[in-house]
Amino acid sequence: MHVNNDLRRRRTLSAWPAGVSALWLTAGLLSLTPTVALAHGEAVTPHRLPAIEVRGELPPLKAGVASLKFGEFFAMPVGPLGLEPSARLLALNGKTVRLVGYMVREEEPTAGRFLFSPLPVVLGDEDESLSDDLPPSTVTVHVQGAGTQTTPYIDGLLHLTGTLEVGAQEEADGRVSSVRLQLDAPLSRRLLRARPVVRAVAR
Fold this sequence. Notes:
Elements: H1 2-13, H2 22-30, E1 47-48, E2 66-67, H3 87-91, E3 96-103, E4 105-106, E5 113-117, E6 122-123, H4 130-133, E7 139-142, E8 157-170, E9 176-182, H5 185-192, E10 195-196
Parallel strand pairs: 2-3, 4-6, 7-9
Antiparallel strand pairs: 1-10, 3-5, 3-8, 5-7, 8-9
């Protein structure tokens, strides 16, 4: 059993980016400080979906759902090989989990998926490297039935429940994801139908 756990760790090591700085380990993994990492001034219309917005206490976990925190993704302290997936992350692979974090604001979002981070982040144009902007614990969230539709951007702290997938996988846009969350069909439909925030216009 112990040998199998070691093998699972080694197979998953290739999923994690190399050369992660101590700054990201502190801010990216453990912090939920509401500050935007990058701001490019691109206009993105925020939407609302109260069912997943955190406004005070989180709702109770449903039966069969495990709570997973971004700070639990990696084994601590960091060893000579760099970031390694934690035993808890590997144990929850294929299970239903709830994550609390922020939708990454992308100037050029990709249909059928969005990025979920432990802190607010704004991604600039496609010439910028994701590894420069995103914490290493960033999760790729897959939305069922999206087709060519991109997911509306929802601002603020959110809670998402879905099936966890761990390991390197090439995405449709050519990026390689390390951790994914597969949303079920009902939540996917609600996300795609999120309503834009309407602000009063001063006269």
